[in-house]
Each structure stands twice: as C-alpha cells, then as structure tokens.
Predict the structure of General stress protein.
Amino acid sequence: MSTDLKKEFWDRMEDIRSGMLGADNARSVPMSHFVDDDTPNTLWFITAKDTDISKAAGTGADAEYIVSSKDEHLYARIHGRITVSHDDEQLDDIWNAFAAAWFDGDKNDPDVQLLRMDLKEAEVWVTEGNLKFLYEIAKANVTDEKPDAGKHGTLMF
C-alpha cells in the first residue's frame, strides 16, 4: 500500500496549489508549492527574503506543510527540512504569473527567495470524495461496520 499511497500522494500534490507552511519559530502561513519530477521528494516555494519562513529556511529549519484539498481528496501533514536555494534554473522552471503578482519586478527582483523543502515523512489521507464517504457512513449505520474513509498511512522519503 505504501507504494500506491506514495504515487497517489505525488499525483494529487501536483494538482494542489497551496497549503500552510511553518518552520521552527516561523508561524504557519499560506504558501503555494511546486512539484518538480527532476527533484524527487522535494517541494519548492517562492517567497520574499524578509519573511519569517525565509529567515527560518536560512538556518536549515525543520518545517511542516499542511495540505487539505477537498477537490483532490488529499489531506497531508508533511515534515522535512527547508533551506534557501540559489538555483536560478529551478526558479526559471517554476516561476509563473501567481508568483509574479507578489513582486514588483520579475523573477530577478532582489526580494525573490526560492525555498527548497526536502521531505522526510508525511502522514497522508487519500479519499474517494464526498459521495463515496456519504455512502460509507450510510452503510456503516446499517451494518454496524466501520466506514471505509479511504487510504491512510505514513510515507517515509
């Protein structure tokens, strides 16, 4: 199941746009992540250099990223180490209009900071959606069996 769950995790993470990212003493804030198949077990973020999360990443902080997506039916608590990255090629690859909206200039704005989160583990819940969940609840009430709420497990990276 772990291999299937890991594949589903990555497939769904590619379609999710945001979560809550926190690290050490940096409070959790909404952030957009980027998945890149060329850097496995890694999430990328773009932020401003003066943010708390960027400062925490400058020390190689432990980080937690929480994802909750009703549309993709994925819920995850992801742990890893977040660091500052100076990989201009990676920044070129993931830069988009959403990131540009936060900065006065383009990706060369001196305030742009690329962050890299190398994942250690994730507790993951994958569901099949609301209709399946409602069916399972109704069935459980009739049969006295526990509902099948989907897949749940801890992934190690």
